[in-house]
Design brief:
Blueprint: E1 2-8, E2 16-22, E3 29-38, H1 41-47, E4 59-60, E5 64-72, E6 84-87, H2 97-100, H3 110-116, E7 127-129, E8 132-136, E9 146-150, E10 154-156, H4 163-166, H5 172-184, E11 191-195, H6 199-211, E12 215-219, H7 223-228, E13 236-238, H8 244-251, E14 256-261, H9 266-274, E15 276-284, H10 298-302, E16 306-309, H11 317-329, E17 339-343, H12 348-356, E18 362-365
Length: 369
């Protein structure tokens, strides 16, 4: 079948809305009609040629998405046409050593690793453009009318939740909230710093509020972005660059219990680490550029401070995403407030530009608009 999709044909170039052929779902796969897809910083890195999982073009961009199952392939179980679903970034196998250790986000299954590179288990792709194979970003490619994905990447949604805002759960929300609740396991009454108030950072703020943190400091170099965090539970906001540690210690003498770096900038990670107390924990949530290195004072690390990594909120999609849905239904997660605009496929390039300029916490691409 033919569909419209936003295709990156050359690194650094605007996305082109092209006619793409989407094949029938293969064994264990499903075709999903995309309801909405968020514009994520990871998409921008792919567009700029800075993503290690996008070695060449063309590629259909987009990954943070929700939709409705339209067709299923042979052997697909637990899903049926008409089911509302989230498309998870991760599709763990449930069998490998890492899955057995409850670290599904680090699954080593060959099919999962191929999906990250935009390939099916047999090394092919279900998409074609101009007669040639076309890779979907992270095996999803949701800046399109449809996506053909593994059933393992699909998480069923209740029929009483709105599909469009649900899309944010599959990346920004699970990454930010998961960093707080799953990776760091923030305790009630803790003090928390979130450095970087984009889509992921705002959700780290939400996660800290859900965890019961008593003090939540939101920091960004753009004052309006830091102030926006107040709607999601921040008790204090800081506009600071190099002086971040000093500003934080003015609010919390000795430093915070937990710091979350949500920009992917190594220098910001070092500043966040420097804002923690002895025995405090810093989590790198943002995705760093390939080859980037971070430096922290060894003496500060020796004072029982912890520096941790985090990949996508360290989430297991089939357990963690339903929990986020429950938090949303209980009124403890704000999703609509994260959405700064909705655009159709023809408006995707403008939305990307506004995200680059820091004018949008989350722009939502709605292919049917």
């Amino acid at each position: 079948m033919l569909m419209r999709a936003a295709v990156l044909t050359a690194f650094g170039s605007p996305l082109e809305i092209r006619q793409v052929e989407a094949g029938d779902p293969g064994p264990g796969e499903a075709r999903v009609r995309i309801a909405a897809s968020g514009v994520c910083g990871s998409d921008l890195k792919a567009i700029d040629g800075h993503s290690p999982v996008v070695p060449h073009t063309p590629v259909v961009c987009g990954h943070e998405s929700s939709g409705t199952v339209e067709a299923v392939g042979p052997g697909a179980e637990g899903i049926a046409p008409g089911d509302p679903v989230l498309i998870a970034m991760n599709r763990p196998c449930g069998r490998c050593r890492m899955c057995a250790r409850a670290q599904a986000h680090l699954c080593t299954d060959d099919a999962r690793l191929k999906a990250i590179m935009g390939l099916t288990p047999d090394g092919g792709t279900r998409l074609r453009m101009d007669g040639a194979g076309l890779r979907p970003y992270l095996g999803i490619g949701s800046f399109a009318e449809y996506a053909v994905v593994s059933e393992r990447a699909l998480v069923p949604l209740p029929r009483d939740v709105p599909l469009e805002p649900m899309a944010l759960l599959s990346c920004a929300v699970v990454t930010g909230v998961g960093a707080v609740l799953t990776t760091a396991r923030v305790e009630p009454g803790s003090s928390v710093l979130v450095a970087g108030c984009g889509g992921v950072g705002l959700n780290a703020v939400q996660g800290a509020a859900v965890a019961g943190a008593a003090r939540i400091i939101a920091a960004d170099v753009v004052e309006a972005k830091a102030k926006a965090a107040e709607r999601f539970g921040a008790t204090d906001t800081v506009t600071a660059g190099e002086a971040l540690g000093e500003r934080v210690r003015e609010l919390v003498p000795g430093g915070v219990d937990y710091a979350f770096e949500a920009t992917g900038v190594p220098g910001v990670l070092a500043q966040a680490f420097g804002a923690t107390r002895a025995g405090g924990t810093t989590v790198m949530v943002g995705s760093p550029p390939p080859g980037a290195e971070a430096s922290v004072p060894a003496g500060a690390l020796f004072a029982s401070r912890r520096l941790m990594g985090c990949q996508g909120g360290d989430a297991s999609p089939h357990t963690d995403l339903p929990r986020l849905v429950d938090l949303y239904k209980a009124g403890r997660l704000r999703l609509e407030e994260l959405i700064t605009e909705r655009v159709g496929l023809d408006g995707v390039e403008g939305a990307i530009d506004r995200v680059r300029r820091g004018e949008a916490a989350r722009a939502l691409v709605v292919p049917g608009a």
